[in-house]
């Protein structure tokens, strides 16, 4: 599904590049619009090709029996990669836990403030 979306987006990008080229070609000769149109068309086509290639590589990685994950060569072995991923996951979990604790503390403070306001209103 993701590959289909990438292909459609790339096709749309190429069409937009051709639209830029057409607008540039219809401009007067003395303006820089022709150059911008040519550069825009080339940039759009190159970007579309890059998106398609990267999408295909991602699909190969996710398919069963595909090649190793991207950037896995940065680690000396799969164990190192797994350990690094575990460490990053634990840091993320600890950060989320701390944020949840802060949110609960703020909620408790808000409830206490509301209860105090309610008792103040009732006493008046």
What does this protein look like?
There is one protein chain. α1 (2-25) packs antiparallel against α2 (33-62). 81% of the residues lie in helices and 0% in strands. It is elongated and about 80 Å long. The N and C termini lie far apart (64 Å). The chain has three helices and no strands. With 124 residues, it is an all-alpha fold.
Task: Name some characteristics of this structure.
mainly alpha, 3 helices, 124 residues, elongated
What percent of residues adopt helix (DSSP H or I)?
over 70%
- The averaged pLDDT comes out at 80
Amount of beta strand: under 5%
Enumerate the spans where pLDDT stays under 50 for 5 or more consecutive residues: none
> Structural class of the secondary structure composition?
mainly alpha
Count, helices = 3
| Total strands | 0
Principal-axes geometry comes out as elongated
- C-alpha-based Rg, rounded: 28 Å
Compressed to H and E, one letter per element, the order equals HHH
For the sheet with most strands, the description reads: none
